[in-house]
Amino acid sequence: MKIAIVVAMQKELDLLLPHISDIVKSEKGRFIVYHGQMAGCEIIAMQSGIGKVNSALALQCMLNDFAPDLVINTGVAGGTGRAGILDVVVGSRVAYHDVWCGPGTVPGQASGCPQFFEPPCGLLDIPALDPAGGVIHGLIASGDIFVASSEETERIRGLYPDVAAV
User: Fold this and answer.
1) At a CB cut-off of 8 Å and minimum separation 6, what does 4 contact?
2) How confident is the model at residue 76 (pLDDT cuts 50, 70, 90)?
């Protein structure tokens, strides 16, 4: 299986790379790509930079150049009461917390998109992601701001009472 992993920040990439063996480093446009192996899978890892636009650009590069079977967007997140420090949260659903397309639209839902994005069928059944092993499955609310205050966390919980991480 060919897996693409996108991270936003260097510190996230630094935590990931030691787990990838036989790394070959190359450049694709403005991105540095790390190609290697992990747990019998072909891994293509890339740091996108912070924000949805950077993430989308990196992902498009990965899709065009490597045609992965699975894409994982991983990194640090903030807890909302369900998840704490060093907990692993896997998105059973992902939603925007910073999108509003104007009157008559749903806060958190980009125009023409679903309110919630879900992983491919069966992905959450992978043994390494088993909640019995301490992995939290839940809603991840994503946005282009760092949530650094209890007021901002409460605003997001107002949109999504069941949010596990932001």
Assistant:
1) 43, 44, 45, 46, 59, 62, 63, 66, 68, 70, 71, 72
2) confident
Q: Which fold has domain 77-166?
A: Rossmann fold (3.40.50)
| Domain residue spans of the chain | 1-74, 77-166
Q: Contact 91/139 with Cβ under 8 angstroms?
A: yes
pTM here is 0.84
Which CATH code, of 1.10.10.10, 3.40.50.140, 3.40.50.1460, 3.30.300.130, is assigned to 1-74? 3.40.50.140
Tens digit of each residue's pLDDT (9 = 90 or more) over 10-59: 999 999 999 999 999 999 888 999 999 999 999 999 999 998 899 999 99
